[in-house]
Structure formats: C-alpha cells, structure tokens
Amino acid sequence: MSLTGEFSYLFRIPVTYESPINSNRCSERLMNSKRNMEGDTPIYKIIPPAISSAGVYYFTTDNDVQYEVRFGRRQDNILHATIVFGVINDEYEGEEYVVTNKGELYRVMSTVVEIVKIFMSEHPKIMCYEFTGVAKEGEDENGVTVRINLYRRYLPRIFDKEWEFAFKGNSALVTRVRKN
Q1: From 3-7, 90-94, 169-173, the region with the lowest mean pLDDT
Q2: Into how many domains does the chain fold?
Q3: CA Rg, the chain, in Å?
Q4: Which of 81, 160, 83, 92 is nearest to 128 (CA)?
Q5: Which domain holds residue 81?
Q6: How far apart are CA 134 and CA 98, in angstroms?
Q7: Considering the domain boundaries, does residue 9 fall inside one?
Q8: C-alpha angle 140/112/54, rounded to 5°?
Q9: Which of 1, 63, 133, 138 could form a disulfide with 148 if both were Cys (CB 3.0 to 4.6 A apart)?
Q10: Where residue 172 sits, what CATH number does that domain have?
Q11: Does residue 4 fall inside a structural domain?
C-alpha cells in the first residue's frame, strides 16, 4: 500500500512510500508469531494498520474478544505519543476499558507489548510515550489505579535503559533519555 499525494510532505517521506507492514520486508514473525520477541508469554495474531503512520492495530483473543491498540500524537508535540487500548466488541456496549475476566490478561498484555515494540521500530524518533490507567469502578480517577500498577509491571518489557519512567496518579510518562 502506498501513501501518495498532497499530504506526504507532512510525514517527511518520499511522495510514494511503501509501508514496511505490507511489503515483503516486514517480518512475518512479528505479525503472526505465537510468542513475543522475548519468547515469553504467547501473543495473539496482530493486524497492523495499512499505513504505519495510521497507528491503529487490532488483535482478537481465543475467546473472540477484539482489541484495538491506538497510538495518538499530541498536537503540540508530534514526538509525544499517547497509547490507548481496549475492547471493541459490540457485546460490551462501547465500554472499551471493560474488564472481560476471560483469563487472558497476560497474553493480552504480551500482545500489547509486542505492538508497542513494532510501533517503536517504525517510529524511532518518538521521544515520549504516555499511558493512562483508566480507573475501574470504585477507584479514584486521578489516583493510582490497578491498571497503572499493571502497566508499571509491563513497561520495562517494552523500554530499555534509554528510557525513564515517571508515574503520577493514573498516568505513566515514558521519556527517552537524551544522550550527550
């Protein structure tokens, strides 16, 4: 799939750009692997965006729970990405942050880790990633949530020593450490 036309200058890419996801250069292992890059917990099959700059990935669990992982850019800083993910099945009535209780948490999180790594490899200039652990019923919306504690556990699997973590309430900000 190619990106052409008047908006290609916004991305600082040639007028025609072949997405690595849709080309033969893309590693089949990344998209169809049963395990993540470290070989830990199995992952689900990842459906990447048609254009890598679109930043929306999908996967479906063995219990047919469909997830969307979305990368957004801040208007005031395009090198700052916000990551949100959640359930998109109609049966959950639009509640994307629902707790499914299907026993798939670790595999879902390993798949999200893999998707973030894929996005990072395709967007190496991003300097900051932001995660928000949306509060479940009964939790303080601005306080430390169960979800942010879960993210705290998984962030080191995504980011190496070139990144530093800052946690405040229900948010995690991961920033690339500038090299001298």
Answers
A1: 3-7
A2: 1
A3: 17
A4: 81
A5: 20-176
A6: 10
A7: no
A8: 100
A9: 133
A10: 3.40.630
A11: no
